Amino acid sequence: MLSHEKVWAAIDALASHNGLSPSGLARRAGLDPTTFNRSKRVAGDGRPRWPSTESLAKILEATGEGLKSFAARVETPDRVTSPALPKVPFAGLSDVTEQAAFDPTGQPQGTLWETVTFPAADNQSVFALQVSGDNLLPLYRQGDVIIVAPSSAVSRGDRIIIKPSEDHLAVYTLLQRTPERLNVQTIGDKPEKIAFEHSAIEWTARIIWASQ
DNA sequence: GCAGTTGGCGACTTGTTCAG
DNA sequence: CTGAACAAGTCGCCAACTGC
Predict the structure, then answer these.
(1) Mean pLDDT (whole number) for A89-108
(2) Which helix or strand (DSSP H or E) is residue A146 part of?
(3) Is the CB of A47 under 7 A from strand C?
(4) Among A123, A135, A143, A180, which residue's CB has the most CB atoms within a 10 Å radius?
(5) So what's the pLDDT on residue A79?
(6) Residue A156 CA to nucleotide B16 C1', Å?
(7) Cβ of A54 less than 7 A from strand C
């Protein structure tokens, strides 16, 4: 799993790699210089505070860092004794849409999968998909990488992938879950509401992370 | 003087709850 | 189901401090 300490350590490592302090990195990304201050990484009552995905996206864009290399930093690869990073299956979204790339439970199978390191693989089964084309705009752009967890519970508002029994998989936003069906909305310029009977769904998976 | 950091505070967004 | 009220969380602004 991603941990609070690992994510903040990766931000520190990214700043250091670019010859910046955390505050300098925030400034370069157009954020407030105090955004990544150590004093703001833990709330007053001791609860860990996390950077938003928007902030992470901005510093990745500002530094030209990709998701794969940032994910590698999460495990502080500079450490000599660092253990081997967990790897997750990686493929193009269009490839897995058109080919038989999953088993009936939504786990990757077949030969088209490569691997990338991603720390969230510590305790759960996940895979990575690279977006191609612009049919998922404005949410996801070409080249974005999404991390998907087939075993993760889904709830209202989640971005999810649905593999219908009789159709190709696709990305949706979950609107409502009832005992009979999943009500979802397509992603794109003209969102449409669709209902899937549970019996017509082979598997679902939740998008837990995206590099944008 | 400048850059970096800390801590307080408020604005803003998002999620949750609940009444109608 | 909808909308209002509330809670939670993140970020930006600010003043003060430290080190070079």
Answers:
(1) 79
(2) strand A145-149
(3) yes
(4) A135
(5) 39
(6) 12
(7) yes
What average pLDDT is seen over chain A? Answer: 71
A153 touches strand B (CB under 7 A): no
Q: Which whole number is the average pLDDT over A127-138?
A: 76
Q: pLDDT at position A154, please?
A: 66
Tokens of A96: 């897995």
Its pTM stands at 0.53
Q: Indicate the burial class of A46 (C-beta count within 10 angstroms; 0-12, 13-18, 19 or more).
A: exposed
Nearest nucleotide to A30, CA against C1' atoms: C12
A185 Cβ contacts chain C strand, under 7 Å: no
SS3 of residue A174 by DSSP: strand
Q: Running DSSP on this structure, what letter comes out for residue A78?
A: T
Q: What is the DSSP letter of A122?
A: G
In the structure encoding, which two tokens stand for residue A171, read together?
């990305």
d(C-alpha A156, C-alpha A172), whole Å: 11
Pick the CATH number of A4-75 from 1.10.260.40, 3.40.50.720, 3.40.50.2000, 1.20.1250.20: 1.10.260.40
Residue A148's beta-bridge partner residues? Answer: A127, A207
Residue A52 Cβ < 7 Å to strand C: yes
Q: Does domain A87-210 have CATH number 2.10.109.10?
A: yes
Query: Which tokens hold the place of A152?
Result: 């993760």
